[in-house]
Each structure stands twice: as structure tokens, then as C-alpha cells.
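Input record, target 12 of the design panel.
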């Protein structure tokens, strides 16, 4: 709870307007603090939804669904086109809100917004994407077709690390398919979601089609248990993803729950090392390592490769510019919270205790004028082994671990044994090695000389193993299947005068 009464309070967004709740029901009227991670100060207060606010959102989404599901797809696409234009026109405000609450550098915020806009662009093709399947003469005088109907109200629950992009992985496609949507963004950086909601209304989206409710675990649990919500998309850490998958499935919902990651880059002896190290720097330290596709382990094949990579990384990690995200000269902003900083410091201790070699230690960094901010410099470990917690756990900070192996099979075994399977990549000039790696690696998204193989909007995003619970990946073609329900019709119009006799055997052609 904030003690400062002058701070702005952010409301929910329900029925096409900002709503501060009705102040009754479980936990209504409570607020949470939103911090600026660069200053370490509370910057805003956030209204917390209780059962009354969620009820309001579900009621309005349910009323809006009746008309929205019957709105022709090309009309829905026209709203999405205007939304895309407004996102571009208001990009500076959205990026400023992201940087103020998440901490990432403004250019990085722009990158996530652009990737979100790409999903909106894909959703603009909804008329084409929603076309059904048709078989004429599936049987004698029988035609058969499948169509894909909207589910109803669907919900999205999103993490702090991409406050604009990850919500846009979900709601543009869900809404394009004819559903109405309730978003529960991260309570740590909620402003971007509110801006998106306001712009969508300005683009002509009918009231109630897109709603935002704020809060923490308590409102999430109410969403999971409400039978009127048909499906849930979740992105966040693995323990929460797993529990969300179980609880929402139990209440009969369709669920996709994307979890955490530990992404390895394999550097082969024949790789272009300069390119590989450049790519590793961006992928490991961009956004302070707070990306689910961040590379957090560099597996070097051969001692000579490892020695060269570590020497080059050391120079560059020491040269990283760390400071507030508002200064685009900086490479890294602060971490999201004091807890995150404490957790990463703890992992660095564990790494040292377990015998890893801390080549660059980013702890204790103080940024002039931002002494209370949650800053840490880039960290680099060498001689990391499989059993160390800095290898087995997702650290989610600017910590790159180097492992040394003898050959590609050893590298692949380490990756395939890991509990996560989100992203990975290989740096090599050898096509056969790249092909072998891509074919046999147990990971959902694979890069060849590409460190962050985040699929473009026309492909779907999803990890394997404990990085995704559910059958379908997010955005792209899978999202059409996730946000619609197939209905298959079989139809016969016998010519006049054709009399059917009773058939007792199972119908076949
Ligand atoms: P988190 O799991 O703490 O929170 C995610 C969401 O769940 C938030 O909206 C939060 O309010 C809610 N939540 C938190 N605890 C809950 C509980 N006990 N019950 C119900 N809901 C709860 O994740 P985070 O710290 O915000 O984000 C970082 C994590 O997200 C990392 O593990 C990262 O790898 C993961 N992530 C994964 C992907 C992916 O595509 N696989 C993408 C982005 C982030």
C-alpha cells in the first residue's frame, strides 16, 4: 500500500472506459504500488480488482460478445487496421510508459511494441485466416464443411517483462476471431495495457470487447474458476504456468500456459566468432536478461573456442553501459524490482559456492543520480557445469554462463536433459551440423546463427517441455485454432422424388 496520497491511481478498463471499481466485494478498493525501477520510488497506485470488478468485466464482455461474434470479419479487420495506425502514432507514449515501469531502454521498448504491432497486422488478415474447410460430395449428394466459431469470453494473464508485446500476442487474435477479452496484465507495469485498451476503443472497437482488470493472484484465481470464461492464455514463470494449466483445465477451460526458460547457444569451432559474440551480447544482456528467449548459457565446443569466446565476452561485458532506460545510450536499464536484484545476487553467490568462475561481477553498481534504482552490471561465469543451480534454474537477469564441451553431441545432451525447452541456437558455418542440431534438439524454437529465434507473427511461438503447458502455441496459425471452436456440418438436399429407405448399417460412402 502506498503512503503517498498524491500519486495517480490507475483504474481498470471495463466497457470502453476507465473504471475505479465499485468498492465492494473481495479486496475491492485495495491498491498496489507501481515502482519506477530506475529510481526505486513508488510512481503510481493501482486499483486491485475484486469479485465485483471482475463481475462487471464479465457482464460487459458477455453482452458485447453477442454482436461482436456476428460482426463480419472484414469489419473486425477494419478496426484492427485503425488500431495499428493508432499504435504507430502513439508509439512514443507507449514506450515511455513501458520504460517508466519496466525499466528497459526506450529503443528496446520500441522493439517490443513493433513485434506486438506485427501480430495486429497478421490479425488484419482474419477474413482469409478464418475461412473454413469444405468438401463437396463428401458422400452421395452430401456436402460437408467445417467452420471455426468464436469461443465467447477469453482471458489473458501476462508477465512483467513485455508489458505491451505479450498482451498483443493474445488479444488481437482472440478479438479478430470474434471473442471478447479480459486481460489481467502484470501488476508491476500495468500502464501500457491501459494505453492499448484506450487506443483500441478510439479505433472503433465496441465497448466491452476488450477489458482490463488489475490485481494479483486473487483476481487470477477468480478468472480461472469462473465458468463463463471459456479459455485462458497465460505467459509467466513455470510454477505459476503449471498451476494455472491445472486449475483452469479442471474447470473445463481451454488453456495455453507458457512458462520459463533456460536458453542455450552452442558455439561451434568453425563459427564466425565475431558475429556469435555480438549476437550473444544482445541476447544475454538486452533488457537486462529479463526475456524468456534470452540466451543465458553459451556452450562452447572445444577449449580453444571457449577461450576465445570468454576473452571477447569479458571485454564487452565490462564495457556495457548501464543506466536509466530513458537514456538511449545505455545498453541495459535496471532490473524490475528490489526482489529481482536480491534474487540475482543470491544466484551469483550460489555460482561461486558451487565452483563456477565469476569472470565479470556486476554487483554493487551505483548509477549517478539513480542510487536507489535496481541496477546491476553484466555478469559472466565460466566453467559452469550441468548440476550447478546457475545452470539448472532460470535466473532472469544479466548473467551469462559459459560451459565447455568436447563436441556437438555433448552440447545437445546438456540442452536435451534440461527441464526447459523454449529457445536455443547454434553458431556454425557447417550446414550439416546445423541441420543435425535443428532436427534432434528437444526445444520449440531454434536459431541457426540467430540468437533470438522469436518467430514472426505468421508463425506461432511456443516452447517444449516445461516451457509450455497445453497443446497450442501462441499467436500465428495456432491462435486461430486456440481461439475458435470447430463445428463440422454434414448436409444433404435430396432431389425431389428421391425417397430414402432406412439404412441400419453405419453410414459410409
Ligand atoms: P509471474 O509468473 O510471476 O507472473 C505472471 C502473471 O501471473 C502476472 O500477471 C502475475 O500477477 C500472475 N501471478 C503471479 N503469481 C501468481 C499466482 N500464484 N497465481 C496466479 N497468478 C499469479 O511471471 P513474471 O515474473 O511476471 O514474468 C517473468 C516470467 O515469465 C519468467 O519466468 C519468464 O521466462 C516468463 N515468460 C515466459 C514467456 C514465454 O513465452 N514462455 C514470455 C515472457 C515471460
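The sequence produced for target 12 reads:
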Amino acid at each position: 500500500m502506498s503512503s503517498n496520497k498524491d500519486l495517480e491511481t490507475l483504474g481498470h478498463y471495463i466497457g470502453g472506459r476507465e473504471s475505479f471499481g465499485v468498492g465492494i466485494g473481495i479486496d475491492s478498493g485495495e491498491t498496489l504500488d507501481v515502482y519506477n525501477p530506475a529510481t526505486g520510488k513508488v510512481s503510481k497506485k493501482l486499483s486491485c480488482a475484486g469479485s465485483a470488478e471482475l463481475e462487471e468485466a464479465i457482464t460487459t464482455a458477455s453482452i458485447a460478445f453477442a454482436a461482436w461474434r456476428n460482426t463480419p470479419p472484414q469489419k473486425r479487420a477494419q478496426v484492427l487496421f485503425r488500431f495499428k495506425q493508432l499504435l504507430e502514432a502513439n508509439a512514443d507514449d507507449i514506450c515511455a510508459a513501458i520504460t517508466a515501469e519496466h525499466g528497459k531502454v526506450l529503443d528496446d521498448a520500441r522493439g517490443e511494441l513493433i513485434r506486438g504491432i506485427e501480430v495486429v497486422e497478421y490479425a488484419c488478415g482474419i477474413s482469409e485466416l478464418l475461412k473454413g474447410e469444405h468438401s463437396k460430395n463428401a458422400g452421395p449428394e452430401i456436402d460437408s464443411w467445417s467452420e471455426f466459431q468464436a469461443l465467447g469470453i477469453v482471458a489473458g494473464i501476462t508477465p512483467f517483462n513485455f508489458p505491451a508485446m505479450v498482451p498483443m500476442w493474445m488479444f488481437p487474435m482472440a478479438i479478430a476471431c470474434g471473442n471478447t477479452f479480459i486481460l489481467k496484465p502484470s501488476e508491476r507495469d500495468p500502464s501500457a495495457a491501459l494505453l492499448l485498451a484506450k487506443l483500441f476503443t478510439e479505433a472503433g472497437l465496441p465497448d466491452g470487447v476488450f477489458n482490463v482488470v488489475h490485481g494479483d493472484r486473487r483476481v487470477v484465481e477468480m478468472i480461472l474458476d469462473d465458468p463463463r470464461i471459456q479459455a485462458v492464455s497465460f505467459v509467466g514463470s513455470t510454477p505459476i504456468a503449471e498451476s494455472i494449466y491445472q486449475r483452469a483445465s479442471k474447470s473445463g477451460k481451454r488453456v495455453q500456459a507458457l512458462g520459463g526458460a533456460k536458453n542455450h547457444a552452442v558455439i561451434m569451432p568453425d563459427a564466425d566468432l565475431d558475429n556469435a559474440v555480438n549476437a550473444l551480447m544482445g541476447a544475454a544482456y538486452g533488457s537486462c536478461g529479463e526475456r524468456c528467449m534470452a540466451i543465458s548459457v553459451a556452450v562452447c565446443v572445444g577449449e580453444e573456442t571457449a577461450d576465445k569466446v570468454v576473452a571477447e565476452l569479458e571485454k564487452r561485458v565490462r564495457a556495457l553501459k548501464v543506466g536509466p532506460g530513458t537514456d538511449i545510450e545505455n545498453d541495459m536499464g535496471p532490473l524490475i524490482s528490489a526482489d529481482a536484484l536480491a534474487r540475482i545476487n543470491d544466484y551469483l553467490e550460489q555460482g561461486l559456492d558451487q565452483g563456477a568462475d565469476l569472470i565479470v561481477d556486476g554487483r554493487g553498481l551505483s548509477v549517478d543520480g539513480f542510487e536507489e534504482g535496481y541496477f546491476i552490471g553484466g555478469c559472466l561465469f565460466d566453467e559452469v557445469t550441468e548440476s550447478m543451480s546457475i545452470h539448472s534454474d532460470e535466473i532472469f537477469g544479466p548473467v551469462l554462463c559459459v560451459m565447455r564441451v568436447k563436441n556437438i553431441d555433448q552440447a545437445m545432451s546438456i540442452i536435451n536433459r534440461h527441464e526447459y525447452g523454449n529457445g536455443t541456437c547454434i553458431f556454425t558455418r557447417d550446414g550439416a551440423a546445423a541441420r543435425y542440431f535443428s532436427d534432434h534438439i528437444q526445444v520449440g524454437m531454434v536459431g541457426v546463427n540467430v540468437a533470438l529465434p522469436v518467430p514472426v507473427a505468421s508463425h506461432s511461438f511456443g516452447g517444449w517441455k516445461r516451457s509450455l503447458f497445453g497443446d497450442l502455441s501462441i499467436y500465428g496459425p495456432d491462435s486461430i485454432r486456440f481461439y475458435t471452436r470447430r463445428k463440422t456440418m454434414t448436409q444433404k438436399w435430396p432431389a425431389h422424388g428421391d425417397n430414402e429407405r432406412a439404412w441400419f448399417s453405419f453410414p459410409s460412402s
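The CA atoms of residues 5 and 276 lie 50 Å apart.
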